[in-house]
Amino acid sequence: MDSRNAVADAAKDEEVNVAGGGGMGPILTQLQQITARIDDLTTKVDQTRELAVKTYARVVRHDNAEVHDDDELEEVPFLDGSWPWENEFVGPQNTQVKLPRRSSLQSVHDLTEQEAYAYFKGYYGPGVPLPDVETRKLRILNALGRYDDDL
Questions:
Q1: Which residue of 59, 78, 94, 136 pairs with 116 in a disulfide if CB–CB is 3.0 to 4.6 A?
Q2: Chain centroid offset of residue 149 CA
Q3: Residues sharing a CB contact under 8 Å with residue 6, sequence separation 6 or more, in sequence order
Q4: H-assigned helices in 67-112
Q5: pLDDT beyond 60 at 3
Q6: Does residue 40 lie in a domain region?
Q7: What positions does the domain Mug135-like C-terminal occupy (predicted)?
Q8: What pLDDT band is residue 6 in, cutting at 50, 70 and 90?
Q9: What CA dihedral angle connects 143, 134, 129 and 63, to 10 degrees?
């Protein structure tokens, strides 16, 4: 049960008690205020996490583009903040695909069709149309910070 619903239900129950002389009204009001503050903090933490993931991903993409050799790419988190290497994600036809470590340009070119599908969806989101496999691999390299002139 959602904490807001529990507090709201308790408040409704207590309205009867308060009208009859009960003393829980102020406590329930404070609980509702606390619940609202917790919800606000949760939203702010989620926003901060999203910003941190985007910032970190940008830094790693820059490092992959400017600092690292072709065989020393760093892992870039997916849009949702999850880490792709050695984790399972949804592949074609809702199959599970364990994504291998891809720390070089060649290793990205060696992705299977299923792995390229999962990497592409992780970096670009479910609403982006799926290109052919070779274009997917190029777009994955773009998400890692490598661009066409590097390939």
A1: 136
A2: 29
A3: none
A4: 105-109
A5: no
A6: yes
A7: 64-146
A8: low
A9: 0
The pair of structure tokens assigned to 20 is: 């009859």
Residue 38 lies in a domain: yes
**Domain range holding 44?**
3-49
Mean pLDDT computed over every residue of the chain: 86
**What tokens were used for 56?**
């970190």
pLDDT at residue 136, as a whole number: 95
pLDDT in tens, 20-63: 455 788 899 999 999 999 999 999 999 998 899 899 999 999 99
Residue 65 lies in a domain: no
What burial class does residue 117 get, using C-beta atoms within 10 Å of its C-beta: 0-12 exposed, 13-18 middle, 19+ buried? buried
pLDDT the model gives residue 38: 96
Radius of gyration of the chain (CA): 24
